[in-house]
Design a protein that fits this description.
transmembrane helix; 2% strand; TPR-like_helical_dom_sf; 501 residues; Heme_biosyn_assoc_TPR_pro; Serine Threonine Protein Phosphatase 5, Tetratricopeptide repeat; membrane
């Protein structure tokens, strides 16, 4: 539009100038001794315009020639900037796609060839992140050092370098170093929410539960943290604070909590444990009941089933109401069975536990059934469920009742005396017991009334020639067959040729 406007203006000026010059037929006289130049006014005007245009072109050409070095530097700078941007763009795409090796290579090109400190800081931080993902922590620390050096005194670049380094230190479970970098940022501006979230992670790893509680509250008030995530932080922190504060600090800590926070499992368990330790069983029951009404957590149900006998009736009536809404909840049925055992309601407890076992085979249910049958005198059933409990727990294998280890093969025992091949007179006298002589019975002593031990421990001869009756334990070995091994193929088992001898 502007081009058309100026074209019309110049055309109008040209037409106007032509009309003016046509009506004036005068001459222009130029006297320059010894010359005398006479021109028509039209030609003089056109000549003047031509000279002006020529001078304008010449001056612009001289200006272009004199500014060539600066323009060349600007051109090179623009080209380098475009090249750096291309490398940064390609590197970030590779980093986001998980091609960390290629991304690190692209960012290294920027670090080695770029002349811009800002772009070097960005490339170094991105390269550090790629090296961190690859587990190359030495290269990562080198890249972070380059970023700090190029950041200089620029506050935003320094904050960026500190934040990236702290986040990677937290991934490595190095909260002390992250805390040292993040604390100045959070002190400088409490609205720096990303640094505050990282501080929350650092204090959680350091188990500073008071700081975790305060920072979570701050982020919740500002609305920069998800409610579910905040509740998970609060659950751990508040439970630890309750255990640490005990009964003395219970009122203060519990009073700061909202209703939806008091029913979190860890908090409810901690609060109920404190009240129960203080003897406030009814208050502990109310805390657990409020939490169970929100969520049937097995830990809450297990804690609710642990109560003195005088509380059994009240808790059974409450649990039976829950059972109407959750008739197939295995943990709830197990809780009812445990309460019945505490109240010595054996038949009802057995029914609840068997119903729970049909839904889910659990080590605790088998253990409770074993205890129940043990109290009822049903030893076989008790042993069966105790074995099943150990099998479910994965501690011991459950062996079949009709299986037994095979008897040891003692034919190859070098310390065994072959009594069958000895005369009867050598075996024992009349009215005397036969004393077995083998490695497993080397210390066997027969009790004789009225005889001192020294007389009983008389040396026995025979079977060893001139050797003592005490066996050499270094030569003893267990000759029991190994399950699953064919001993006929080994040299330890007597061969048929030796039997024929």
């Amino acid at each position: 539009m502007r081009t058309w406007f100026w074209s019309v203006v110049f055309l109008a000026l040209a037409v106007g100038l032509a009309l003016v010059l046509r009506e004036h037929g005068g001459n222009v006289l130029i006297v320059a001794q010894p010359w005398r130049i006479e021109l028509s006014i039209t030609f003089a005007v056109l000549l003047l315009l031509a000279v002006f245009f020529l001078l304008y072109v010449v001056i612009r050409l001289l200006a272009w020639l004199t500014s060539s070095p600066e323009r060349f530097r600007l051109w090179r700078g623009v080209r380098a900037q475009k090249r750096d941007h291309d490398w940064l763009e390609t590197g970030w795409v590779n980093l986001l796609e998980g091609r960390y090796t290629q991304a690190e290579r692209d960012f290294s090109k920027v670090l080695t060839q770029s002349r811009s400190p800002n772009r070097k800081v960005l490339a170094a931080l991105a390269a550090a992140r790629a090296s961190h993902r690859l587990g190359e922590f030495v290269r990562r620390d080198d890249a972070l050092q380059i970023a700090r050096e190029n950041a200089g005194s620029e506050p935003r670049l320094k904050e960026a370098a500190a934040t990236v380094a702290a986040e990677m230190y937290l991934d490595q479970n190095r909260p002390n170093e992250a805390l040292r970098l993040l604390q100045p940022l959070q002190d400088a501006s409490s609205r720096y929410f990303h640094a505050t979230r990282l501080l929350l992670r650092a204090h959680q790893q350091l188990h500073n539960h008071d700081r975790v509680y305060d920072l979570t509250r701050l982020l919740l008030r500002r609305g920069v943290i998800d409610k579910a995530e905040a509740l998970s932080y609060l659950e751990t922190a508040v439970a630890a604070r309750l255990h640490k504060g005990g009964l003395a600090g219970f009122k203060t800590i519990w009073g700061d909590l909202k209703s939806d926070e008091r029913v979190l499992p860890e908090i409810a368990l901690a609060g109920a444990a404190i009240q129960e330790s203080a003897g406030n069983i009814d208050e502990a029951s109310k805390i657990l009941e409020a939490a169970i009404n929100v969520k049937f957590e097995p830990r809450l149900l297990s804690a609710y089933s642990q109560c003195p006998p005088e509380q059994v009736a009240r808790r059974l009536s409450k649990a039976e109401v829950w059972l109407k809404s959750k008739p197939d909840d295995s943990a709830l049925l197990a809780m009812l069975g445990n309460l019945c055992l505490t109240g010595q309601l054996w038949g009802q407890g057995e029914r609840y536990l068997l119903r729970s076992m049909k839904i889910r085979s659990d080590v605790r249910i088998h253990a409770l059934l074993g205890n129940l049958y043990d109290r009822l005198g049903r030893r076989a059933d008790a042993m069966k469920h105790w074995r099943l409990a150990s099998g479910v727990a994965g501690v011991l294998p459950v062996l079949a009742a009709n299986r037994a280890l095979p008897a040891a093969d003692t034919r190859g025992d070098p310390t065994l005396i072959a009594f069958a091949n000895m005369p009867e007179t050598d075996l024992a006298g009349e009215g005397q017991e036969v004393i077995p002589q083998a490695a497993s019975a080397a210390d066997y002593v027969v009790e004789h009334e009225g005889k001192p031990a020294a007389e009983v421990l008389a040396p026995v001869s025979g079977g060893f020639g001139s050797k003592s009756a005490e066996p050499d334990f270094d030569e003893y070995f267990d000759s029991a067959p190994i399950p699953g091994v064919d001993l006929s193929q080994t040299s330890d088992r007597p061969s048929d040729r030796s039997k024929n001898r």
